[in-house]
Design a protein that fits this description.
By secondary structure, this protein is an alpha/beta fold. The protein has helices at residues 59-64, 101-105, 126-140, 176-184, 196-200, 205-212, 227-238, 249-252, 273-277, 307-317, 357-360, 390-401, 405-419, and strands spanning 7-12, 20-29, 35-36, 39-44, 47-52, 67-77, 79-84, 111-118, 150-157, 189-194, 216-219, 256-257, 295-299, 322-325, 339-342, 345-351, 373-377, 383-386, 437-440, 446-451, 454-458. The chain is built from 13 helices and 21 strands. The strands form 3 sheets. Strands 1, 2, 3, 4, 5, 6, 19, 20 and 21 form a 9-stranded mixed β-sheet that branches. The protein has an 8-stranded parallel β-sheet with strand order 7-8-9-10-11-12-13-14. It has a 4-stranded antiparallel β-sheet with strand order 15-16-17-18, with no helix packed on it.
């Protein structure tokens, strides 16, 4: 059996412990940019029990267990999206996470885990809706629901930001006491976007409160913060480097950066936030001593930043420092012209201006259609989010940016799991990890999405 290809994965669901599913593929992508061919993975009760390059189908296992067979050319971990505002379920963006539509749809695009990105508007009844949304998310966070992407927790985009970009107005000057009560409402909070300039005014007390709780601060939404203001934030984080707080020591002392090159600046002399995210290491000067360069997230839809800029970020930082995100706000299946409400403002789905063949040397239609569309505020055309998927970004990286499948997986799976402190169980095919796995054909078309050992999506079923 399974003679066409050399890689085998054995899956046994909790419901049928005496039954195995054998998944055969030509390549299995491993952590840190490696791959295994030939090899096999044994999964029991949704957990990877073994990863090996031994003969693909051990005779003893097949003799003792009934089994099914699936075939694939490429096998990767499931994608993890840590910045996603939801993709539909109703016509009000604020209420997306009151519904389970997003987690139900995401597996067909390869996303097996997601953070619910929430904003905290103070206008148009935003505050009254916010608590309902938080309550709904908290009830589902950390639960494996068959057929749904795993809701790993909350990413709070604000409220403490300096520049809104496409965000609705929020309480940007929240007192520390109010901020602590605000955090108490979100026990599953994993990441919070916070503006360095705002934090500097209160000696980074709110940022310190996040670190004490083991929440990852993501500096961002701050176009004109100074070098001193960013350094101050990094110094506060550095105090936690030797205190694990549920992560490795290195991760505990490292900040994250929200969508680099969007709502932030890169300057050649009076440096700002973008400069801190573009270097793989800091200069050996006294002011940088003991500080860690933040990980950076990039919206890989080829619209939020130009393909040349995307390539520059990856080349500058290396794949180990970059996290790919969608910043999704609309479904990829909606037609251009679709409008939704966002705190009293109208958002419209429009085609972006794709890179021309004169500047890229390729057809402007080469990128996927959904990654070339963008959600904008109808009033002034400010970009409010994407309608791209992690699968779109995977294809963009491999087909248009020149990234290997192995390196793309680091940025789409392994790095986001590390940022949110779940890298021991998510983001990689290795012993002890949860069996979140994607099966592709030779053209990297997604065939099957497996979450916790069970099939959540199959292209054969639609």
């Amino acid at each position: 059996p399974c003679s066409r290809v050399p890689i085998c994965l054995y899956l046994m669901s909790e419901k049928a412990a005496n039954h195995a599913t054998v998944i055969c593929g030509q390549k299995v992508v491993l952590p840190d940019g490696g791959s295994l061919s030939p090899g096999y993975i044994v999964i029991q009760n949704g957990i990877i029990k073994d990863v090996s390059s031994h003969d693909p189908i051990p005779t003893m296992l097949l003799q003792s267990l009934p089994h099914d067979v699936l075939e694939a050319d490429v096998v990767t971990p499931g994608f993890i999206d840590i910045h996603n505002h939801g993709i539909g379920g109703c016509t009000n963006v604020m209420e997306y996470w009151l519904h389970d539509y997003t987690t139900q749809i995401l597996p067909r695009y390869g996303t097996t885990s997601v953070l619910a990105s929430l904003t905290f508007p103070i206008e148009h009844e935003g505050e009254s809706i916010t608590q309902k949304i938080i309550d709904h998310v908290e009830k589902r966070a950390g639960r494996i629901i068959p057929g749904h992407a795993f809701l790993a927790g909350i990413h709070a985009e604000g409220p403490i930001v300096t520049d809104l970009g496409g965000l609705p107005p929020s309480d940007v000057d929240m007192t520390l006491e109010s901020f602590e009560r605000f955090l108490d409402r979100m026990p599953s909070l994993k990441v919070m976007t916070i503006g360095p300039a705002k934090e500097a005014k209160i000696a980074y007390a709110r940022l310190d409160a996040l670190l004490k709780r083991g929440v990852k601060p993501a500096i961002g939404h701050d176009r004109n913060c100074s070098e001193a203001e960013v350094l101050g934030a990094l110094r506060v984080a550095a105090k936690y480097r030797d205190e694990a707080h549920g992560r490795t020591n290195e991760d505990a002392g490292r900040l994250h950066m929200t969508h680099i090159l969007n709502v932030c600046s890169f300057k050649q002399r009076d440096v700002s936030l973008g400069n801190f995210g573009m270097v793989p290491s800091f200069p050996t000067m006294p002011e940088y001593e003991g500080l860690q360069v933040p990980t950076v997230e990039v919206i890989g839809d080829l619209t939020h930043i130009h393909p040349l800029a995307l390539r520059t970020v990856i080349q500058s930082r290396g794949v180990s420092g970059v996290v790919m995100v969608t910043d999704a706000i609309l479904s990829p299946d909606l037609p251009p012209g679709t409008e939704v409400n966002y705190c009293g403002r109208h958002i419209v789905l429009d085609y972006s201006r794709p890179p021309s063949s004169e500047t890229t040397g390729t057809s402007s239609s080469s990128a996927s259609a959904s990654s070339r569309r963008v959600a904008v505020l109808a009033s002034d055309r400010t970009i409010a989010g994407s309608c791209a998927t992690m699968l779109d970004i995977f294809h963009n990286l491999v087909r248009h940016i020149g990234i290997t499948v192995e390196d793309a997986v680091v940025m789409l799976c392994q790095n986001p799991a590390r940022v949110i402190g779940l890298h021991d169980t998510l983001g990689a095919i290795r012993k002890g990890a949860r069996a979140d796995i994607l099966l592709f054909d030779t053209h990297l078309h997604l065939q099957t999405t497996i979450i916790a050992g069970d099939v959540a999506y199959s292209s054969k079923e639609g």
